[in-house]
Amino acid sequence: MTNRRKNRVFISYSHNDIEMAHRVSDALQREQIDVIIDYKDIRNGENIFDQIRYMYETSETVIILLSNSLFSSKYFQFEFPQFFFEEARKRKINIIPILIEKCQVPSDFLEFEIINLTNNFDKGLEKVIHKLKLIPEISFEHFSPYKFEEFTYDFLKAYGFKNIKREQKFDDKGVDFIAETYTKDVFGIPNKEIWMVEVKFYKEERFSINSLNQIISLYNYINKEDAKILLITNSVLTSVAQEYIENIKRENKLEIKVLDGVILKKLTAKRKRLLNKYFLK
Questions:
Q1: How many domains does one find in the chain?
Q2: Which of 226, 3, 239, 272 is nearest to 135 (CA)?
Q3: CA angle 23, 35, 110 (to 5 degrees)
Q4: Considering Cα of 234, then 238, then 240, then 245, what sign does the dihedral take?
Q5: Cα–Cα distances in angstroms (integers) from residue 269 to residues 138, 139, 155, 263, in the given order
Q6: Distance (Å, rounded) from C-alpha 246 to C-alpha 226?
Q7: 20 near 59, Cβ under 8 Å?
Q8: Which residue, among 122, 200, 139, has the nearest Cα to 3 in the 3D structure?
Q9: What is the spatial distance between Cα 281 and Cα 277, in angstroms, rounded to a whole number?
């Protein structure tokens, strides 16, 4: 793999786990990964929490070492929950939680893939290194609108969508895909869900609220009340756009799912066929 851009990594850990933190850091640095770990440059009188925030916010990826010591620390109890996950979503920071000892992991971490080092350190660390090297490889910079649409079709298939139909026209208006998913209720009875999938590819400009309004107008025009809306874009949603989407969902009682460029990359990294076909040639 070629490293198209440096992926700066910050390791967050409890002071009691400093030996493990350095063990992980040393292994990553041997793989030419840029790692920030020590707080030795913090001067007396400076707020260590402010310094941690700064290092956290200026890194592309944060590795957090999960342990009993971390979860019982004052930093985790008073600073971490209010800041960590909110900033991760806002700044699109890649989060890699690493379990370094058996402990009860708070539910906030369950949305991320937790890598376990307690059974086999070397094998677990290989997964971490693979993930870190893969993140820069996934780029839509050289895609065309047509190629991004082809990628979206394969992406939907990879994630279990069925009966995917392209460019569905309703009078003079069209939606990129209509697709179905099937889930089971508590009794094991399958439920069919219909999704209107809109694809937005951008070369330079960022995703706009106007684009979202167009999709909602199309939904209202088609009047397919049982459908859900899925928007897939290579762009990154601003915090304003994210808040607007939440308001639309509440006010109009619409089921809207948005996969922006950052989320799309993370989901793509979990599907080898997509990686091999579009990114690892």
A1: 2
A2: 3
A3: 75
A4: positive
A5: 8, 11, 11, 10
A6: 19
A7: no
A8: 139
A9: 7
Residue 112 lies in domain: 9-137
Using one digit for the tens of pLDDT, what is the confidence trace for 191-245?
899 898 989 898 876 677 777 777 777 776 666 667 888 999 998 777 677 788 8
Clarify whether residues 125 and 187 are in a common domain.
Answer: no
Instruction: Look up tokens 């390791």; give the residue.
Output: 11
In a domain, residue 2? The reply is no
- At which residue do the structure tokens 């708070």 appear? 106
**pLDDT-based confidence at 65, cuts 50/70/90?**
very high
Q: What is the pLDDT of residues 87-137, one digit of tens each?
A: 676 666 788 899 999 999 888 787 788 999 999 999 999 989 888 877 767
Entry pTM: 0.64
Residue type, 161: F
Longest CA–CA span in the chain (Å) reads: 69
Quick: pLDDT tens for 148-180. 999 999 999 999 999 999 876 655 567 889 999
**3 state SS of 177:** strand
> Angle at Cα 249 formed by Cα 169 and Cα 220, nearest 5°?
30
